[in-house]
Design goal:
This protein has two helices and two strands; from the N terminus they run αββα. By secondary structure, it is α+β, with helices and mostly antiparallel strands. It has one domain.
C-alpha cells in the first residue's frame, strides 16, 4: 500500500465527518454519500450510509448509465 493511500485510510473517518457536515449545510438536510479514493490500483471508500445494499444499488445504476453512454452533466443542469 502506498504512503498516500495509508494516510488517506487513516484519516478517512475525519474526512467523512467534515464532508458530512459540509454537505448537510449546503443541502439543508442530511444526505447520504460515499467517497471513493484510489491510487495506483488500490481503492478505499468511506461512507455515511450504513445500508451497503443501497450503496450497491446506486453504484450499479450509475455504472449502467455510464455503460449506456450517459453524459457527464451536472445534476443542476438536467432538465
Amino acid at each position: 500500500m502506498s504512503a498516500a493511500m495509508k494516510n488517506i485510510s487513516m484519516q478517512a473517518q475525519e474526512i467523512a465527518q467534515s464532508l458530512d457536515g459540509k454537505l448537510e449545510a449546503v443541502a439543508g438536510e442530511h444526505v447520504g454519500f460515499s467517497l471513493f479514493v484510489w491510487t495506483k490500483g488500490r481503492c478505499t471508500y468511506v461512507s455515511n450510509c450504513s445500508d451497503r445494499a443501497e450503496i450497491i444499488t446506486v453504484l450499479e445504476g450509475m455504472i449502467e448509465g455510464w455503460k449506456q453512454g450517459m453524459p457527464d452533466v451536472p445534476a443542476h443542469e438536467v432538465q
